[in-house]
Amino acid sequence: MSSVFRILAVCAAALTLAACATRAPSVSSPGALPPEVTNELPGMVGLAAQDVRTAYGAPAFVRRDGGDEMWRYDGAGCKAFFFLYPNGGTLAVRHVETLPRGSKWAADPACLNALRAAASPPVS
Predict the structure, then answer these.
(1) What is the pTM assigned to this prediction?
(2) If you placed Cys at 72, which of 49, 61, 97, 114 could pair as Cys (CB 3.0 to 4.6 Å)?
(3) Which CATH number fits domain 43-124: 3.30.420, 3.30.450, 3.30.1450, 3.40.1000?
(4) pLDDT confidence of residue 106
């Protein structure tokens, strides 16, 4: 009977050591650019922060994380999220997505157009 307990003890020790050997998820450093996203709406990546404000107005919400920022714009039927990263002393768009998402891109062009129209003063 004691040999069975020894085998169980060795197995338990091996499993414990194996669990300790797993790697912790890597955390990117602040300001590090995320991996390149391939389903971006043309003309959005690289857009300067000031150009986003000019087109869409002031964001409803801003989250700052180190030097990076996420701007949220709220519309009647959708929300847009602009992810901005430092780029040569200013912030620039690296990724844009909407809720609901677009069918071809992460951002729905109809949502962005509606938000842009809502931010623009009417033409007289």
Answers:
(1) 0.68
(2) 61
(3) 3.30.1450
(4) 92
